[in-house]
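re: ur question from yesterday

yeah so i grabbed the chain u mentioned. its 280 aa long if i counted rite. heres the sequnce exactly as i have it in my notes:
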Amino acid sequence: MMMSPDYIVDVSEADFEYEVLAYSQNIPVVVDFWAAWCRPCRDLGALLVRLAGEAQGRFRLARVNVDENPNLALRYGVRSLPTVKAFVNGQVVAEFVGAIPEARLREFLERLQPPSPTALKLEKAESLLTDGEWAEAETLFREVLGEEGEDPRALLGLVKSLLAQGKGYEALAILEAFPASREFTRAMLLKPYAHALVELRQHRVDEEEDELAAAYWNAIRLASRGNILAALDGLLDILRQDKRYRDDQARQVVLSLLEILGEENPLTRQYRNELALILF
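ran it thru and got these structure tokens back, copy pasting raw so excuse formatting
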């Protein structure tokens, strides 16, 4: 498919206001400041042209010859070549100096694009998770996964929302098949609590059960009902009496619950500090 030449333009001081600043109100405009004598400029310029062609109008490439337009170079603080500046809504939002590898350039250009509806939905789901709206978060995570397949970030969020609602069996099934990804380590932190929930469904109160065992199962029961803070308090009380209770399972469940709370929750750091004081 031929690319519209409108997405690659040479601009000057006379038309910069319209071709770049005004145009950037609609789509990102990437301005390449270059000079004919600059060899890296030629290499980077050719790469930018190719990627602009691939983008098919998702951004505009505007080229400025600094020898012919020195005032533009001065206005935007261009001191070295090549310099690339990205404009959105008339403002510089990102820039770099020098020729960079294609992979980094693709990342630079990708960051200029507005988030997709699915990405916005994922952010909303994570916000609901942070706010403790577990059921609503679960619904949105499932919608994202229906659109994006096995997205690890959405899978992690889904597992957290399931565990926060006490759905241990379903969460454990997802964890057992969790894909290799950046989220994998965090996902594995959730396994101890998933196992504890499964055990809770099978647990029968034993008359011989000691106080710590009763307290442990009560904490798991509280967590399964969404009372995560009360569960954490109960588990920390147990660890004060036995740091490796149930072969370290109590400590591991605490870490699971803190992962569900998320680092955005100010109480997470407080509980982590309290756990450290108990253990060390």
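noticed a couple things. Residues 45 and 224 are 57 Å apart (CA to CA). also Strands lie at 8-10, 29-34, 60-65, 83-88, 91-97.
anyway ttyl
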